[in-house]
Amino acid sequence: MNHELDSMTLPTFQLDGKVALITGAGSGIGAGIALALSAAGASLILVGRSANTLSEVAELIRSRGGDARVSVCDVTDSAAIRALIQGLPQLDILVNNAGTNYPEPILEVSDAHLDAMLDLNVRACFVTAQAAVAKMRANGPGQGGVIINVSSQMGHVGAPERTVYCMTKHAVEGLTKAMAVELAGDGIRVNTLCPTFVDTPLVRNIVDTPEKEAALVANIPLGAMARIEDVVGAALYLASDAARMVTGTSLKVDGGWTAQ
């Protein structure tokens, strides 16, 4: 009996033969995504400012049988990140993860903090993605590629003491949609990954008392901060052929925060 399911190819999360570059890969979400993509078969290029932390992640990947190389680079140096990506022999996946936040009331936002967040969260995100697109196109017709811009639930809502951060992540959401439409003909898929608060040292510097944690968790219907392993599966999905019809969208890993 003929059936439309007879010829269906089951989705795969394997990334064998793919090369993935991850910015901000020395710790936290970036390091976790690196481990997940490596476990799925991708070769990794780990980018960040600290050779020590990047090397630790690379060694862990290699100890598990993976392939990883370290590239020390400040992504806010546009010439440096462009040169790094242009010099790669191959690039299939970009995880645009580097970012920062200085939570503070709007009237206390300094020009230095404003510039730092705009430079890293927006300008560097754009420049890195732009360079990746050029490299992916150079791979040849039909090769395509994947760009994952790590955004935030704050790219979809507002919050006190997050004016600049929300502004930058809303910008990343708009960039992602525009890129997805423009690059669809090249087979380059572009999406955002939008976590809630993830239990990392960076977040613990902000959520540094039981009272602050309780107030934060009260806004998450699932009742807890995310862990790194809660986020990396979403990145693996977006990077894989299982998401081949997913572009221009946001995958929220927010415990229900934005559903309220």
Q: Report the major sheet.
A: 7 strands, parallel
Radius of gyration: 18 Å
Q: Give the CATH architecture.
A: 3-Layer(aba) Sandwich
* Helix count from the secondary structure assignment: 8
Number of strands: 7
Order of helices and strands: EHEHEHEHEHEHHHE
Q: Indicate the percent of residues in helices.
A: 40-55%
Cα separation of the termini: 47 Å
The proportion of residues in beta strands is 15-25%
Question: Low-confidence spans: pLDDT under 50, at least 5 residues?
Answer: none
The top level CATH class name: Alpha Beta
The main sheet orders its strands as 3-2-1-4-5-6-7
Spatial shape: globular
Total tally of structural domains: 1
Q: Describe the oligomeric state of these chains in a short phrase.
A: single chain
Rounded average pLDDT: 95
The CATH topology: Rossmann fold
Looking at CATH, the homologous superfamily is NAD(P)-binding Rossmann-like Domain
Your description of this structure?
The protein has helices spanning 28-39, 51-63, 78-86, 111-138, 163-183, 201-204, 210-217, 228-239; strands spanning 19-23, 43-48, 67-72, 93-96, 145-150, 188-195, 250-253. With 260 residues, it is of the alpha/beta class. It has a single domain (19-198, 227-253), classed as NAD(P)-binding Rossmann-like Domain (Rossmann fold), CATH 3.40.50. A 7-stranded parallel sheet has the order 3-2-1-4-5-6-7, with helices on both faces. Helix 4 links the parallel strand 4 and strand 5. Helix 3 runs parallel beside helix 4 (111-138) and helix 4 (111-138) packs parallel to helix 5 (163-183). 40% of the residues are buried.
